[in-house]
Design a protein that fits this description.
This protein has 2 domains: 2-116, Diaminopimelate Epimerase, Chain A, domain 1; 127-263, Diaminopimelate Epimerase, Chain A, domain 1 (Roll). Helices cover 16% and strands 42% of the residues. It has 4 helices and 18 strands. Strand 13 (203-210) and strand 14 (214-216) form a beta hairpin. Keywords: Amino-acid biosynthesis, Cytoplasm, Isomerase, Lysine biosynthesis. Substrate binds at residues 13, 46, 66, 76-77, 159, 192, 210-211, 220-221. InterPro entries: DAP_epimerase_AS, DAP_epimerase_DapF.
Length: 276
């Protein structure tokens, strides 16, 4: 099988994007792992598969696979790259598209100059929505990790996130604590672990240990989750610049029951073809 693809990134969170509309694509878990290997394959944090929609009224279906081969529900940086990809490949001439995901519909809008705005939907905070094992919903929870408790906020952006405050994101033990939170038994389907440093009410720094991918240079849904957790806790205003190691992203959230709006860049690195 010969597979045409684009290599893209959003703030350094990198993707192999595959057109499953004009070419037949059937990839095994082992093939995805090989493609994701940075020495033996293309190398990526996630593989994004563009498909035709399942329901009328939508433009595309969006599937996401981590480099460990596992399929996940949502990816914010990937959504921006998705929107640029379908425009660049002339799969649509629309600026704003409706895209099916495993956890609902998102609406990316290509703004030009590589910038994409995405309506990421309404965040959910009930423990059952992640899922997270807790007796009742709260703003924060004490999570026992490595002999102590870590205070976390939780949010689902179509995928699960646990966000903790840290004094200095550079000094945060992301490599050590990240996998312990990701695989904590309180999260039966694992979780993305965010480490947030608040600079002021409109600006944070963030690192995310992503479920199934490890730490990435940026995480779009992680940026959304961190911002909304901070806003709910009264620590942040409704418009937040999130500074990740790969660059900056703008998150806007008007409060409970309202969608999260994410705006940031999408970049095409190269196009290619690989034989499997």
């Amino acid at each position: 099988m010969k597979l045409k693809f684009s290599k893209m990134h959003g703030l350094g969170n990198d993707f192999m994007v595959v057109d499953g509309v004009r070419q037949s694509v059937s990839l095994s878990t082992e093939q995805i792992r090989l493609l994701g290997n940075r020495q033996l394959g293309i190398g990526f944090d996630q593989l994004l598969l563009v498909e035709a929609p399942r329901e009328a009224g939508h433009d595309f279906r969006y599937r996401i696979f981590n480099n460990d081969g596992g399929e996940v529900e949502q990816c914010g940086n990937g959504a921006r790259c998705f929107a640029k990809f379908v425009r660049d490949e002339r799969l649509t001439d629309k600026s704003r598209i409706s895209v099916e995901t495993a956890r609902g519909v998102i609406s990316p809008e290509y703004l030009g100059d590589g910038q994409v705005r995405v309506d990421m939907g309404v965040p959910r905070f009930a423990p059952a929505d992640l899922p997270f094992l807790a007796d009742a919903e709260a703003l924060t929870y004490a999570l026992p990790v490595a002999g102590g408790d870590v205070e976390i906020g939780i949010a689902s952006m179509g995928n699960p996130h646990a966000v903790q405050l840290v004094d200095d994101v550079d000094a945060a033990p992301v490599a050590e604590i990240g996998p312990l939170i990701e695989n904590h038994p309180a999260f039966p389907q694992r979780v993305n672990a965010g480490f947030m440093q608040i600079l002021n009410r409109g600006e944070i720094r963030l690192r995310v240990y992503e479920r199934g991918a490890g730490e990435t240079l940026a995480c779009g849904t992680g940026a959304c989750a961190a911002a909304v957790c901070g806003i709910r806790q009264g620590l942040l205003d409704a418009r937040v610049i999130v500074r990740a190691r790969g660059g900056d992203i703008l998150i806007e959230w008007a409060g409970e029951g309202r969608p999260v709006i994410m705006t940031g860049p999408a970049v095409t690195v190269f196009r290619g073809e690989i034989e499997l």
